[in-house]
């Protein structure tokens, strides 16, 4: 396990996998399929019951569990993609309901994932920002929810020693859509941020969250940051990356015929010096999803001078 901590300290990102993660991902997909049918969120198909039965059969055996996950992952990815063409609202409802599912919370609480987080952040007390959890549903032709290059710390300005949990439920690659990231040393400290607080607040007040995030950016020269790396894997592997790791969404290839599903959560070390300072100084959860405010708080904490 110390290996995991070392890798995280060096690169800012680690991959974690295990049979229980595979099973928890598959259970969540089965629940998403069941709830979609009960609420008529996706196009109805006679094969749903068959998909569930076949997946459960694969899952019953350790050797075939991974195959079961891939089977239901591909089925859900294509069902959501096809349903979005005729009922986009159903997808939005699925997105809203996902984080209320018991299986969603079971996945985020998976013992391998939780012990990895404790090890990586080297803490006995882990906090989870409850507003930071959710399921992304990315469609190949939709750009609005995509994130630009950023460090999580500014949108969730709660601790420097904190991590993003990113769990793909479907295949991820540059073809299927994925995440691009830039390894350390860039991920060892907050990078200066330039943004317009007033404009960001105006957009947030109108509920235009993703657009608001894009009113600012990391002040970094692309040539200083190096080449991006891309996550590329089947479902069943989850990623834990530092809140200081610069990263961005990568849209799927326009020929892709599947939706990308990814669960997310943000965790922090309660003994982190920024967290303790913020607790004494102001509202602990202030600045949520307001990177300009995150930058202001960081400057105040660290004594960084504004340009
Ligand atoms: O999944 C994605 O495309 C982007 C995720 C991301 O940038 C984030 O969680 O901060």
Description:
This protein is of the alpha+beta class and 307 residues long. The chain has a domain at 2-18 and 111-302: Jelly Rolls (Sandwich), CATH 2.60.120. 44% of the residues lie in helices and 16% in strands. It has 13 helices and eleven strands. It has helices spanning 2-11, 19-38, 48-59, 65-86, 88-98, 102-108, 111-121, 152-155, 197-205, 209-213, 222-225, 273-281, 291-302; strands spanning 13-17, 126-128, 134-138, 162-168, 178-181, 193-194, 217-218, 229-230, 237-242, 247-250, 260-269. Strands 1, 2, 3, 4, 9 and 11 form a six-stranded antiparallel sheet that branches. Helix 2 (19-38) packs parallel to helix 4 and helix 2 (19-38) packs antiparallel against helix 6. It is globular and about 60 Å long. The model has no long low-confidence stretch (mean pLDDT 93).
Tell me briefly what this model is.
This protein has 307 residues and is an alpha+beta fold. The protein is 44% helix and 16% strand. Helix 1 packs across helix 7, helix 2 packs antiparallel against helix 6 and helix 3 (48-59) runs antiparallel to helix 4 (65-86).
Strand-helix topology:
Elements: H1 2-11, E1 13-17, H2 19-38, H3 48-59, H4 65-86, H5 88-98, H6 102-108, H7 111-121, E2 126-128, E3 134-138, H8 152-155, E4 162-168, E5 178-181, E6 193-194, H9 197-205, H10 209-213, E7 217-218, H11 222-225, E8 229-230, E9 237-242, E10 247-250, E11 260-269, H12 273-281, H13 291-302
Antiparallel strand pairs: 1-9, 2-11, 3-11, 4-9, 4-11, 5-8, 5-10, 6-7
The chain binds 2-oxoglutaric acid.
